[in-house]
Amino acid sequence: MDIHILPAGPSIPDKIGSADISSLSQNIQFTEPVEPFFTRQSTQLILVGLHFLSSTFIILKKSRQCLHDAPLTRNFRSHKRPLLLKEAMDSLFLPEESQSEPSSPGNNEPLAARMRPRIIEEIAGQQHILAEGKLLRRAIEADRFTSLIFYGPPGTGKTTLANVIARSTGSRFESLNGVESNVAEIRAKIEAARTYSQLRDQSTVLFIDEIHRFNKAQQDTLLPHLERGTVRFIGATTHNPYFYVNSPLVSRSQVFQLEPVATEDLLPLLHRAITDDERGFGSLKIDAHPDALEHLATKADGDARKALTALELAILTTPKTDDTIVLDLAIAEESIQEKAVLYDSDGDQHYDTISAFIKSIRGSDPDAALYWLAKMLHAGEDPRFIARRLVISASEDIGLADSTSLQVAVSAQQALDFIGMPEGRITLAHATVHLATAPKSNSAYAALGAAQADITSGATLKVPEHLRTKFRKKLAEESGADKAAMQYLYSHDYEGNFTPQSYLPEGRRYYEPTANGMEKRIKDRIDFWKSQFESDSK
Hints:
The chain has helices at 18-24, 37-66, 85-93, 111-114, 127-130, 135-141, 158-169, 183-200, 216-228, 241-244, 247-251, 263-275, 290-299, 304-317, 329-336, 348-362, 366-379, 383-398, 404-419, 424-437, 443-457, 470-478, 519-537; strands at 2-5, 26-29, 148-151, 172-177, 204-209, 232-237, 254-257, 286-288, 325-327. The protein is elongated and about 115 Å long. Strands 4-5-6-3-7 form a 5-stranded parallel sheet, with helices on both faces. It is of the alpha/beta class. The chain starts with a strand and ends with a helix.
């Protein structure tokens, strides 16, 4: 093949013939044929393009599976703010109903998960907030709620209720955990909620479990979005939100307390789990004895999840007899074992129980006081903490009606330190019963409170002249003060070690003794001194 290469230069005429080409070119001979330049380059471009399209498809597929809430560099259907890759793809490829409800439990999930209520009527207990006409029930039915905080012990249905609310209102359900989540995850969920609101006009319930675990910065991240209504926030906590959740978040939320599920409310749940063909064991032939179910419901101690878990264990591990699973009391006792006492070292159960303990002593009920003492010891409460509270109660509640109570309480505290546990519980029981059965008086404690109130609310009283130090008296005499008015009467110089003398200006009285126990003798003595003082003043 002959290729003619024209030399560069401005002298080439506009029109040239074949002869001119021959004269102006070099004749270059190739030993092998060469493809046209345009054809080879086109082939390379096509191959590169196919490789690019293939790589792009793989990237999109992987992004669809693995990336969550990654921002797009281009806007999708919106020029105001970037959308999220996952959300944009979902809006294109997912059916509308795929994100509208929480996922349904599968057959391989635990019974407690399969039996999770889907509607309000299936929720066990909590009628104090979910009964017809109650505020929360009305808010759900009217779809008129913004931010909620559910507060209660484990197993009372906080997460379940949040799921039911999302289903009932047709909202998306997104969840975070206060232990595992960070600010970036919170913002990603909020941005996803904003996207769904724009694309599908669908609200999002953002459920945060253990909200008390969030620090201040994490909780504050939610505030502007709660005010704008970007998400419908539901928080759950086992700790009192008024103590453990930031005040701005609490003030923007309705707080509802969930109570442990009563035994009579757990029994229908257990029956439904046995008979439900879809989610329970309805396909099996089960002979559940009433006393067995009663035992499971009682030992669960208000925890629905614990009751269902024990029931599942009993059914799945019991061999069949004539194609029937017999669930009797012995099997039920084996399945649930000893219940764990609901108690925390620094939360509501801790403070509620010690409060009940002290109030039982104050109310002179030794049986109640011993029960709460037993609960605390069983739950692992620090016995030294109990001993300290007994010492306080001895002065606060018994006081001068039986001054030996303080001696008993202090001795119990010292004995506990000396002998340790478990024998130390004996001295605690001794002091508890003594204080509960002793006569009661808080007169000394109340008198101190009255005196402190006078000091904080009024002018500070001056020390009477005759009670001042010798140095102060000498200065007063040099300035012309009445020497007789500054004379102090030494009580031990008089009969009965008493002489009428004023120790407080304006005649104020704070201590009012009772007629209980030994304090009656104190009252008689004070009344006598008072009569002597009044007689001397006449």
